[in-house]
Amino acid sequence: MHQISERFSQVQERITKACHSAGRDVREVTLIAVTKTWPPEIVGAALEVGLMDFGENKVQELVAKAPLFPTANWYMIGHLQRNKARQVVAHAREFHALDSLRLARALNRHAEQAERVLPCFVQVNVSGEDSKFGLHPPLVDELIAQMNDLEYLRLTGLMTLASPDVRKVRDEFRLLRSIQSRYVHLGCQHLSMGMSGDYEIAIEEGATHVRIGSALFGPRR
Ligand SMILES: *Cc1c(COP(=O)(O)O)cnc(C)c1O
User: Fold this and answer.
1) Which residues does 193 contact at the CB level (< 8 Å), separation at least 6?
2) Cα separations in angstroms, 66 against 39, 92, 94, 128, 182
3) Rounded to the nearest whole angstrom, what is the distance from the C-alpha of residue 37 to the centroid of ligand 1?
4) Does the pLDDT at position 2 exceed 70?
5) Structural domain boundaries of the chain?
6) 157, 180 in Cβ contact below 8 A?
7) For atom 7 of ligand 1, which residue has the closest CA?
8) Residues 126-165: pLDDT tens digits?
9) Kindly report the CA angle at 16 between 132 and 217, in degrees rounded to 5?
10) CB count, 10 Å around CB of 103?
11) Are 73 and 91 in contact (CB under 8 A)?
């Protein structure tokens, strides 16, 4: 508890500094606390110190934790199988890992049934690593065009995971931003990028949502 509070302050300070050095307002940046692998008590402790936005990368964990903390905002940030689309619509405020038309259609169908609109971030693989999910940049255009027909999804932004090589991440974040700039007129105004190891660079390059786990909660068990 004490440690979360201290780490949260440090992260906030570094977010503030990165915003200042980039001439940005800190209110433009949402800190998503990534609680994957941590038990619900950690979410409770994080809420107590003032964190409000939580991210999970697996549906099972989202489903297990989100209903326990209905006042928190929950984000699904990881790869999703179509057969679990309904749970994301039921429990997540936003979906940050949209990477195919088939998945988009499944989410749209469940959102219609639930009578809600689901804000979606299209995940882009900017590092080119085969191990990563997300669309290769030349394929983004097609998915975004097809999303136009899906009334219950709202294109909100783009998301990426940068490569582990810190010398490359700035260029990768810039690439994501340059792709996003083509779709601003469609409402694609946000950039979900930056994790514990690279969030300051991400903020300097325009991130509106940083997804931070270990810098807040320590190494995952
Ligand atoms: C785990 C995870 C994070 C957070 O990673 P840390 O390095 O612990 O900050 C962010 N985004 C996604 C999609 C993740 O799966």
Assistant:
1) 159, 160, 162, 173, 176, 202, 205, 207, 209, 210
2) 12, 8, 13, 33, 34
3) 11
4) no
5) 2-23+30-217
6) yes
7) 196
8) 998 888 899 999 999 999 999 999 999 999 999 999 999 9
9) 55
10) 21
11) no
Q: Which of 34, 95, 159, 196 to mutate to test the pocket of ligand 1 (most atoms within 8 A of CB)?
A: 34
Tell me the two tokens of residue 32: 């998503």
What is the distance between the alpha carbons of residues 8 and 217, in angstroms, rounded to a whole number?
A: 9
- CB proximity list for 144: less than 8 A, separation 6 or greater: 122, 155, 183, 186, 188
194 lines ligand 1 (CB under 6 A): no
pTM above 0.85, yes or no: yes
Side chain identity, residue 155: L
Among candidates 204, 208, 200, which has minimal Cα distance to 180? 208
The CATH code belonging to domain 2-23+30-217 is 3.20.20.10
For the CA of 199, the closest atom of ligand 1 is 9
For residue range 46-77, what is the model confidence (pLDDT) as tens digits? Answer: 999 999 999 999 999 999 999 999 999 999 99
Handedness of CA 34, 40, 41, 47 (dihedral sign): positive
